[in-house]
Amino acid sequence: MSKNGMSTKTLTLLGIETSCDETAASVVRRHVDGNDTYHGEILSNIVRTQLKEHAAFGGVVPEIAARAHADTLTTIITAALADANITLDEIDGIGATAGPGLIGGLLVGMMTAKAIAAVKQCPFIAVNHLEGHALTVGLTHGQKPPYLLLLLSGGHTQQIWVQDVGNYTRIGGTIDDALGEAFDKTAKLLGLGYPGGPQVEQWAKGGDPDRFALPRPLKGNKEPNFSFSGLKTALRQQAQKKQPLSDQDIKDLCASFQQALIISVIDRLNLGIASVKNRFNPEPDFPIVVAGGVAANKALRIKLEQVSTTKGHPLVIPPFDLCTDNAAMIAWAAAEHLSTGHQDPLSTPPRSRWPLDERSAPILGSGKSGPKA
Ligand code: KG4
Ligand code: ZN
For residues 138 and 318, what is the distance between their CA atoms, to the nearest angstrom? Predict the structure, then answer.
């Protein structure tokens, strides 16, 4: 241990992620290079998606998800250890997602992690899935806090000020649907398949974004929150008026919808940046970090890059496979905590709801969206 209580030792962590519809295991190393400098290394990163199991239902079915995790997790962990060319005896600790997420899946992952930790007598770390997303850029880019995190996934849409590892302030969040959920529901309505985000983006390419007039949710509202359900309803009404829809109608609807979502996200982000400056007095060029599956959307990325350039905030986005759900981010967050000497008792329960910022009051209207994180 160094003077500030941080471990100076290289730590090798096994991470397990089972909070939604990905069964994942990964081995990650946290190397300490010098005083307060470190870098991450991914030794293995195995993700088995359950997309096929859930596709027929147009969304994640909790019971099917839990069974699929139970059926496959041991094989996935064995594969992650084999890929990393490592045995459990060489692991310094095990991190498992303890929430937020579907309770059945969380139980499968946590019980497995606890059993290994008990048998191998090594530390167990209960990881918040959102913290995994929040800290990924430390693993991929060596990016340290403070930064503004824009988390855009199928279950969460939040702006979080990451002051330090373990110190998070929610700047804003969605009052209804998550951004990915809005893409998915609209794709379902237009008969485009699941997950909907990539489909909507693809169809939008050949469409006219100005053909359908859609609302700009919360525009002018001074809180940096998000709202997408009104937009989704407006799109449904426009689609109903045009029945039967031609391919061009679908393209134009997708382009108009995507444009409205992006305008709203950028408008809200600008407010979030102003709020951070006001509340935390940070360095003027603090970075903006984007995570979650919707970060794959190219049209959104172009607009985010414009904000980054015009406002002077470096934009940091993990590679796509580490933006979406994975266990490397869980192993890394666990390593960050273990490096400070933190570990959790084996009695730690899973939490289907677990806000990253427990100090801020819940956002009015939030909590209705799906369990995906
Ligand atoms: O982070 P993620 O893989 O899973 C969780 O929600 O935890 O995010 C999945 C979400 C889905 O809603 C999917 O439709 C959306 O990310 N997504 C996209 C794109 N690729 C994935 N949304 C818009 N454009 C995309 N290219
Ligand atoms: Zn997630």
Answer: 10
Phi–psi pair at 266, nearest 5 degrees: -65, -40
Strand ranges, E, within the chain: 11-17, 22-34, 37-49, 93-99, 124-128, 147-152, 157-164, 167-173, 288-291, 315-316
pLDDT-derived band at 53 (thresholds 50, 70, 90) equals: confident
Indicate which ligand has the atom closest to the C-alpha of 185.
1
Ramachandran angles phi, psi of 99, nearest 5°? 150, 170
127 neighbors 97 (Cβ within 8 angstroms): yes
In this prediction, residue 219 has a pLDDT band, given cuts at 50, 70 and 90, of confident
Secondary structure (H, E, C), 288-312: EEEECHHHHCHHHHHHHHHHHHHHC
Q: Of the residues 294, 322, 330, which should be mutated to test ligand 1's pocket, given the most ligand atoms within 8 Å of the CB?
A: 294
**Domains of the chain (ranges plus CATH)?**
11-143+324-338 (3.30.420.40), 147-320 (3.30.420.40)
